Amino acid sequence: MSAPAPTIAAIATAPGRGGVGVIRLSGTHLLPLAQTLAGGKTPVPRTALYTDFSDAHGLPIDNGLLLYFAAPASFTGEDVIELQGHGGPVVMQMLLARCLELGARAAEPGEFTKRAFLNNKLDLAQAESVADLIDASSQSAARMALRSLKGAFSQHIHALVDELITLRMLVEATLDFPEEDIDFLEAADAKGKLKALQTQLHSVLASAEQGAILREGMNVVLVGAPNVGKSSLLNALAGDDIAIVTDIAGTTRDTVREQITLDGVPVHIIDTAGLRDTDDVVEKIGIERSHKAVQEADVALILIDPREGINAKTRAILQSLPAGLKKIEIHNKIDLSGEAAAMLSDGIQTASGADTLIKLSAKQHQGLDLLKQALLAEIGWQGESESLFLARSRHLNALHSAQVELENAALCSNTQIELLAEHLRLAQLSCSEITGEFSADDLLGVIFSRFCIGK
Ligand code: GDP
Ligand code: ZN
């Protein structure tokens, strides 16, 4: 038996003022603590108790609801108490201080979810989806995170692992009967089973890669000479997007960056006009952000006035772009020339070296849909479907490793049974890392430290 886990407490609601604020506690045998907080009243599990929350002298700090969840029927699998008080920062701090006084310690980020994982309430992929759901930046991403939280992704991984185990049992059985190995594996159609596994893994990986697009979103930078229409295009794209959120911290609109949603994919667009030298401190910070944005960009939109072509300044900016950055060339202001909006891509020659050319008018909102299509095509987005998983790069890496092991397994000849068995074992290990059946402690540390406190 390990020692009982220490009681942890945290404010679970977001900082600031709200109608209700929630403090969450998790630990072993918390009923006495709940009774003390409730001034002697005994809470019934899973039943709201309306009560004063008392301080050390029995005086009320606040009043509200106390919810008691007895182990193991709780989020963490331990005893859990939730105090729903008035959502002011001072009240919440006083309530939290009272919990600490009663023996709890402040929870680390993600510690509640980590305990849920350690107590087998969630597997690792599900635990991660808790954070993904909270961080979701589009409705599609939120829907997908919830599906993963409910175990959809994990089920696919478990199915893969089950198939792998079946095949490994078959292969390893032949190791014990070396004379019959080849016949035995052929009779059991080991190669056919391996092929089917590869197909199954391939389809999970494809869904995960699409989901990763939705999770990470797409970073787009606008590049071009002054007056070519960068700000106008940014505004046109943002103005078209009715789902845009303007009043949430971190999504405030400014003149150089917007976040829009294209077919559920969050798209961050940055106008790199900020990329000029300055001594102004505030502006300097903006410029550093812009440089970082270019380094992290997936796609660059290169705006050109077709009457002027690429000037020296734009050419210098183009040369400073990272080598792997995808490019779309845009000829703006077609309303002035009377040209029609168009998208050209097959075998075209562009001044910037981009493979796709869009002719549009930012001002008249002509050709914007073509641009949106082109953006989604650049990152290979195929549209949301029920089968996508909001995968993280950790998941993709593990699936890729498993894929390599299966490829190596397929290369094994009929006489390399031990090698075949080893590749299958490693493939299984990679898959199991996703759900956390085999994971190092430091990996857990990395994953949970990125959660917010109280989760
Ligand atoms: P930026 O310096 O690249 O950000 O360019 P702006 O967006 O500020 O635009 C410069 C000027 O070009 C402004 O007067 C815009 O109204 C104008 N402009 C931008 N896009 C269009 C367009 O599609 N058609 C026309 N006729 N004018 C445009
Ligand atoms: Zn501008």
TrEMBL record:
GO terms for biological process: tRNA methylation; tRNA wobble uridine modification. K(+) binds at residues 227, 246, 248, 251. It is found in: Cytoplasm. Binds 1 potassium ion per subunit. It is an enzyme of class 3 (hydrolase). Exhibits a very high intrinsic GTPase hydrolysis rate. Involved in the addition of a carboxymethylaminomethyl (cmnm) group at the wobble position (U34) of certain tRNAs, forming tRNA-cmnm(5)s(2)U34. Homodimer. Heterotetramer of two MnmE and two MnmG subunits. This is tRNA modification GTPase MnmE. It comes from Uruburuella suis. The lineage of its organism: Bacteria, Pseudomonadati, Pseudomonadota, Betaproteobacteria, Neisseriales. The gene is mnmE.
